[in-house]
Amino acid sequence: MKRELQGRYVTISTAGEKARAFVPAPLPPRPPIDWTPELRSKFDQALLALGRLDSVSTLLPDTSLFLYMYVRKEAVLSSMI
C-alpha cells in the first residue's frame, strides 16, 4: 500500500525560539486505514494517554509554559546524542 506524504512541517515561534511543527494531511487518509486488532489496541492506548494529558492540563495555570519546558528538555536530550 502506497501513501502520499502524511503532512508537512511549518516553522513556528514559541517563547522567542523557533521550532518546526508537523501539520498532518487532511482526513480521511487515502487509501483508508486497515484497522487490525494490534493497530486498534495501539490507537486506544494513545487515546488514553491523550485523555490523561488533557486532564492534567486543566490543573496548570499556564499550559504553554508547561509545554515549553518539555520542548526545551527534548532539545537538550537530542543535542546530547
Task: List low-pLDDT spans.
Answer: none
Q: For the record, give the distance between the C-alpha atoms at the N and C termini, rounded to a whole number.
A: 34 Å
Q: Which H/E pattern describes the elements?
A: EEHH
Task: Return the average pLDDT rounded to an integer.
Answer: 86
> What percent of residues adopt helix (DSSP H or I)?
40-55%
Q: Count the E strands.
A: 2
Classify the beta-strand content into a percent band: 15-25%
**Largest beta-sheet characterization:** 2 strands, antiparallel
| Adjacency order of strands in the biggest sheet | 1-2
**Helical/strand content category:** alpha+beta
- Please compute the radius of gyration using only Cα atoms: 17 Å
**Tally the helices: what do you get?**
2
Dominant shape: extended
